[in-house]
């Protein structure tokens, strides 16, 4: 799920029985299509393997987005979700 922290709206989502990198890439794609953000957007997530994957990181880079990940073992960094 991708949440726009300014509007607090869900702008991208995807569902699957597991959590592969493709799942988060699909959610990000939906959010980009809906909002059309510019380069420099900060995309925050936890440290899950799907967010650290080369596929997801390449998708962020292709849009010029900045990856921000929570600190290890600190649930408060991602408290919005």
What string gives the helices and strands in order? EEHEHHE
Describe the strand arrangement of the main beta sheet, using strand numbers. Answer: 1-2
> Would you identify the CATH H-level superfamily?
Ribonuclease H-like superfamily/Ribonuclease H
> Total strand count, please?
4
Question: What portion of residues is helical?
Answer: 25-40%
Biggest sheet features: 2 strands, antiparallel
- Alpha-beta classification: alpha+beta
Oligomeric state of this protein: single chain
Report Rg: 12 Å
Strand content: 15-25%
Number of domains: 1
CATH topology: Nucleotidyltransferase, domain 5
**Which CATH architecture is right?**
2-Layer Sandwich
For this entry, give a set of tags.
81 residues, alpha+beta, Nucleotidyltransferase, domain 5, two-stranded antiparallel ribbon, 4 strands, 19% strand, IS3 family transposase, RNaseH-like_sf
What does this structure look like?
With 81 residues, the protein is of the alpha+beta class. It is built from 3 helices and 4 strands. The chain has one domain: Ribonuclease H-like superfamily/Ribonuclease H (Nucleotidyltransferase, domain 5, 2-Layer Sandwich).
What's this entry about, in short?
It contains three helices and four strands.
Write the layout of secondary structure elements.
Elements: E1 2-4, E2 9-12, H1 21-35, E3 42-45, H2 49-52, H3 54-63, E4 66-69
Parallel strand pairs: 3-4
Antiparallel strand pairs: 1-2
